[in-house]
Amino acid sequence: MAEIVQQRIENRIPELEQLERVGLFSKKEVKSMLKRVTALEYKLHRLIITKVDFIAYIQYEINVLELIKKRRSRIGYQFKREEIEFSIISRINSIFRRATTKWKNTKVQLGKVFSSMLAIHPEKPALWIMAAKSELEDRNSSESARHLFLRALRFHPESKKVYQEYFRMELLHAEKLRKQQKELAQAEIDMGEYEFSPEIMSGKLAEVVYRDATGKIQGADFILSLLTIAAIFDFTKELQDTIIQDLQSKYTDDSLTWDFMAKRELGATVGEELQSAKGRASDIARREERCCQVYEEGLNSLNTEAMWACYVSFCLERFKRKTNVQQLKEKRQERLLAVLQRAHDSSLLKEDFYKNWLQVLLSSGDSEQTAAVAMAATQRYRQSVDVWYLALQTMVHLGSGATGKLFQDALTHVNPKLSLPLWQLQVEWSMTSQSPEETEALFQRGLLSVVPAVSMEIKEKYLDWSYRAGGYKKARKTFTSLHESRPFSKAFFTRMIQIEKDQVTPKMSNLRDFYERALREFGSTDDDLWLEYIREELGPSGHPENCGKIHWRAMKLLEGESVERFTAQYTLLQTGHI
């Protein structure tokens, strides 16, 4: 028993050290906490254990969490949550699991735990919902669950999630009553002593919640979320009709309303089920046309970017659906291209949809139209890196002769700080499509970039290309010309080190030179680089006697947690574990 308790206490030590180190608790307080939790832990390992012992332990941990929250607020320190709060929460869960393993029937105690937690954290809607669900599912008490939801709404009167779950709870309660009534009727039991209110069983309480919720929270998205919940239950047709009427009367200026009404047409009943593939495809085509008619009606009164986005998204989703009927597939593609073109002509096509448009056009083989759309996209979103990247990708794929000029245009319009993806794409294109002289000139232009991320990436690509295009000598020449041209990435040096090691007879003197240059840039933070250098000296071409000096220099230069990592890894290296 003592060994287990000691192990659990030792597991706390990093967390307690953090509390003291960051100033949330004093040394004296940490000692007091250690003493207290030791006593609590021993109580859980006695021969006779009570539920009160577990609850007291959980309550103590909750109190510690609350105290930490107050201390953080007072001193303004918000870091190290993973090492402190997360470990405490994990421990609370562990204690709770230990308790529920020992006592399967812990429903009353669970209610007390939730009550304690809600008293401390009433600002957390999720906690109220968990407590209410526990009352409904574990204790079979819809009244208690309803009471908790009403209390939750006093703290969170405009919480969508609380209202959604309250609405769901009332429908679940109605469904349960309906099942009970049905079972009693089937068993031919006299239902006189049972109360089955027709209003409750038809979902009238849920409708009350709906009215209250929509009176406080506006928006088609919220009403639709409640409608989605209601649609799960097979006795809510009247309630669903009420919600849909509200949606149509109050939110015709919201694209989500039209989107919902249009998609309803897909599920509309149209008579007998058709057996042949062509018959089903024809029926689907008619349904989709009716959806489009609703979207068109919506556009007549709501010609907005959001409305077009809904329409395009619908057409795109239908186009992506697999079908073996070629006529339906062609009809969907024709419809999608037409809607995309109209949205573009209205200057209301979202940036994201140009990618889909170009993909459809590329699959259709219409190179001229594809190029035109790519260029049109860049004219509409001249400062968007994503649009330029997409357009350039398309032009590269088409093999356009205007690609080089388009790259130059792109780099003049976008924010230089965001231009890295365009440089990367241009380098890849140049290496496969242009002459070595043109590629070299591109690299030289890239080196002049004032954006560090671009400059570093260009150096890496330039070195790698030099080795592939001109071998070791050219790579070494490129490295020498750039090794003083800051800023650098670590990859620039490690690539040169790897190039040297790839040679038939790599020179250790060159490797040392490359490592030393890299350490001048990254020696204070990169413990892995020091370890790689030491491994190199321990290799067949190195001098093991140099390792001590390298270790001494690393310990002198490394800072913060890098020192601890280096020390641990170096010890493992010395003992042969890595």
Automatic annotation (TrEMBL):
Q: Where in the cell is it found?
A: Nucleus, Nucleolus
Signal peptide bounds: none
One record GO biological process = maturation of SSU-rRNA from tricistronic rRNA transcript (SSU-rRNA, 5.8S rRNA, LSU-rRNA)
Q: Which GO terms describe its cellular component?
A: Pwp2p-containing subcomplex of 90S preribosome; small-subunit processome
Domain U3 small nucleolar RNA-associated protein 6 N-terminal: where? 9-91
Q: Which UniProt keywords apply?
A: Nucleus, Repeat, rRNA processing
InterPro entries in the cross-refs: HAT, TPR-like_helical_dom_sf, Utp6, UTP6_C, UTP6_N
Q: Which GO terms describe its molecular function?
A: snoRNA binding
Pfam families with a match to the protein in the record: U3_assoc_6 (PF08640), UTP6_C (PF24892)
U3 small nucleolar RNA-associated protein 6 homolog C-terminal domain spans which residues? 289-558
Question: Gene name, please?
Answer: UTP6
Keyword Repeat listed: yes
Per the record, the similarity remark reads: Belongs to the UTP6 family.
Q: What is this protein called?
A: UTP6 small subunit processome component
